[in-house]
Amino acid sequence: MMHAMSSDAIPPVDPAPQQIVRYGAMRYLGVFTAPPSLVFDRQSQLILNTERGTEVGQWLCVGTAPMIAALPAPTRGEILRVADARDSDRIAQMASLKPKYADKARELVHGQRLGMQIVDVEQLFGAERLLFYFIAENRVDFRDLVKSLAREFHVRIELRQINPREETRLIADYGDCGRPVCCNSFLVEMPQISMRMAKLQKSTLDPNKITGRCGRLKCCLRYEQDVYELHQAELPAVGKRIVTKVGQGRVLAQELLARQVLVEFEDGRRQPVPIADVLSTL
After folding, report:
1. Which pTM was predicted?
2. pLDDT digit string (tens) for 184-204?
3. pLDDT for residue 9
4. Most buried among 9, 30, 63, 175, by the most CB within 10 A?
5. Which domain holds residue 188?
6. Which CATH number covers residue 239?
7. DSSP the chain
């Protein structure tokens, strides 16, 4: 027998919505819980508890289910509070100390004759650790460097070797387009780029024009690649003989964005033919 719920029964409490936050020098994206009383403004500066320690982050949006599903392996953590004036002062003080940390690290690297270059320094808000990002052509034994830095700054030290794209994410500002570089503004993952993409899109193959700030092919070559591949699959391949509404001929070239092919007809004429006018392939 079913019994009616008592009028004084306590209804279930909806869990606080999760929040999407960007944090860290490498601009990680995470899904964070927060006290229900906290109110966020666009790009609010936050104090966070992450798996690395106490950090500073930036609020992006409420973590809806589709938004969270779109994030590749997001980190998890807790929003402690919205940064106040005292927090902002500490953040500014930490930023002013970065050149000191970097200069000392470079001095030690030079003294120990290590084949590496310090790119950037990150200090966690809670002072749990100092992270030094570096580039190197080969593997580097930096154990003595870690010990020297720990003696100098009396804090846990981490060194992380990064690649050219990650270096750009850390220190670059604007791209050739005049906008902030994609890797440190909105990209979640670093896309795989190949010269084949530039050739398919018939971009200029001048390295100076298709190379980004990192010295690698520009990330924007990846953005429309799926569309180019889709149109390429729809069009007859170069060299194929086809039947069109105006006769038979051989495909000389594909014009992907126009969704047409350049055809040489049996009488020697050459003209573009829309995909809708291609009847069959021979």
Report:
1. 0.76
2. 888 877 778 899 998 898 877
3. 56
4. 30
5. 166-222
6. 2.30.30.140
7. ---PPPTTPPPPPPPPPPEEEEETTTTEEEEEE--TT----TT-EEEEE-SSSEEEEEEEEE--HHHHHHSSS-EEEEEEEE--HHHHHHHHHHHHHHHHHHHHHHHHHHHTT-S-EEEEEEE-TT-SEEEEEEE-SS----HHHHHHHHHHH-SEEEEEE--HHHHHHHH--B-TTSSB-GGGTT-SS-----HHHHHHTT----HHHHB-TTSSB-GGGGTTHHHHHHHHHHSPPTT-EEEETTEEEEEEEEETTTTEEEEEETTS-EEEEEGGGEEEE-
